[in-house]
Amino acid sequence: MQDLFYINAGIIPQLPRISLGIGAEILYSFVVIFCSLMIYFGTRELYRLSSYKGLKYFRLAFLFFAVAYFFRLAIEFMVATFNVEEIFEIYPLIISYVSLLVFIYFSSMSIFYLIYSVLWKNLKNNSKIIYLFHAIAISMAFSTIAFNNVIFYLGLNLVLFVFAGVFIYLSSHSPKFKSRKNRFDKVYILLLVFFILNIINILVPKFLEALKILLYLALLSIFFIILYKVLKKSGD
Amino acid sequence: MAKRGKLEILEDTLKVVKENRNSIKPTVLLRKSKMSSSRFKEFYAELLEKGFVDEIRKGSDRFIRLTEKGFKFLERYKTIVEFIEEFEL
Predict the structure, then answer these.
(1) Of A16, A41, A62, A195, which residue is the least packed, with the fewest Cβ within 10 Å?
(2) Global pTM?
């Protein structure tokens, strides 16, 4: 009834504010870090035996996911400890800058490594492209801090997502994979969507507040699917 | 004939060594590997460097044999290939 009153009065009722609390954030980050490290170490023997490049980049993607989530947790912890709304409100600012720089670099690189693990065969003649990815990730980290602008950062992530999604889709639909029954590209693209939303969530906490639990559950589900497949396929 | 991938070449080569009672002369392996001499030389150096095979001397002859890692690779080859295909790597 109260909502109807607000709507009639031309006021849109806000979505309920959901605060997960630092305990839930720690648990969530811990599960993501644990899954990522399980994937990294679970594929160690296969990589040691094969030295296969695609496997190397796949493993690095999850190692970088783990590091990014460690710094994400540190940022969440600082925001809660200093009782502020956003990371840029923490002083001395150097702590905010360094944590955010490391977080954005590692999270962007984890996405680039995931793309490269699927794409590297098509880019054999241009093996230096991984250095370009490092340069882009560093530029993204520094420009986010320099501009400190939410719209700029959202735009940057949208470009990154479109770039990643298109490349993964095109690569996995190349004639090489035509006969394959189980395409994994949908899981990769979903992982990218939720991972980018997670990055946005740490920089613009209010942007996704109402959807936070759903977002966390979706990302955890994807990590569990990948972990399950990795453990099943690697035989460990 | 489709071009063999690096992993496939590795499996074929190690299999040849294993099927020869784990002891084969480099010249015989070269002949059975279906590679050019220069390509084989390069590939063989990589096998030694990565520890898939080692050499033993019997008199004046050199013989190649699989190491533990070489056997492990053959054992896990199918898993490696299936993993790569599953994750589109």
Answers:
(1) A16
(2) 0.81
